[in-house]
Amino acid sequence: MKKSKKMLAGATLAIGVIAPQVLPTTAHADENNGESTVNLRILETSDIHVNLMNYDYYQTKTDNKVGLVQTATLVNKAREEAKNSVLFDDGDALQGTPLGDYVANKINDPKKPVDPSYTHPLYRLM
What we know:
This is 2',3'-cyclic-nucleotide 2'-phosphodiesterase. The protein contains 4 helices and 4 strands; from the N terminus they run αβββαβαα.
């Protein structure tokens, strides 16, 4: 009985994975009916790791390949190209460098609770 359940589960999974790949699918956009449309540019950042400046804290030297300075330049350029844009950060922004550790320790001081209106400096820059 257990073997047949495993086979059935495996077959169901295989069909569920393979069927969408081989069966034809179509998507139809709704008619516009003269309504306005909006173009939206979606921007995202990822793995900034509190690299606010173009500086490698571990090698103690300037590095123009990292930093929010470079990222901000690219984001601002993309925003100039599009009238409507939205910026998302995918994470790993608040840890990863000595600066991030320093800010985290300042924020997490048990003697000074965090003000609910506090915004992390990295997100203020974005």
